[in-house]
Amino acid sequence: MQAIHTVYGGGIARASGMDCIKVELQLQKIGLIEYFDGLIFSGHEMPRSKPWPDVYLVAAAVLQAKPARCAVVEDTVTGVRAGVAAQGRPGVRLRSCDLWPCGCAGFAGCRGVGHVYGSGPVGGAGGVM
By percentage, how much of the chain surpasses pLDDT 90? Predict the structure, then answer.
């Protein structure tokens, strides 16, 4: 995460369907909170949550990035839908199991990736943009 944060000059954000307090607690627990300081966005704070793209569009705006230039890393089918809707280009779904395809492969633009996070505490914490 440190390398990604450095390469992108801190231009990474957390866009989640969960409330910010839960996301912050999870990021603290796994030692990643420092990479998302002030860049955690919740669907609870938006007019519409995932699968609507609102949370991703706000994150991109705050990062001053065009949504079509953002990479979306997701752990749920709902999140993949939101990411694809926000950017109109391929999304990636990360899962904690080793099933292939990922179950969301039927969604336009989704590429499944198996066994990336293992069974750690990251799952369910929302998307990274």
Answer: 28
Q: pLDDT tens, 42-93? A: 999 999 999 899 998 999 899 888 888 887 887 788 888 888 888 755 455 4
Bond preceding residue 67 cis, omega within 30 of 0:
no
User: Per the structure block, which two tokens stand in for 9?
Assistant: 């000059």
Helices (H), the chain: 2-7, 20-29, 54-62, 77-87
What residue ranges define each of the domains in the chain, with the CATH number in brackets? 2-128 (3.40.50.1000)
DSSP track, 72-93: -EESSHHHHHHHHHHHSS-EEE
How far apart CA 113 and CA 97 sit, in angstroms, is 10
| 27: confidence class by pLDDT, cuts 50, 70, 90 | very high
CB 91 within 8 A of CB 72: yes
Residues with Cβ < 8 Å from 107, sequence gap 6 or more?
Answer: 77, 80, 81, 84, 91
Work out the end-to-end distance of the chain between its first and last CA atoms, rounded to an integer number of angstroms: 13
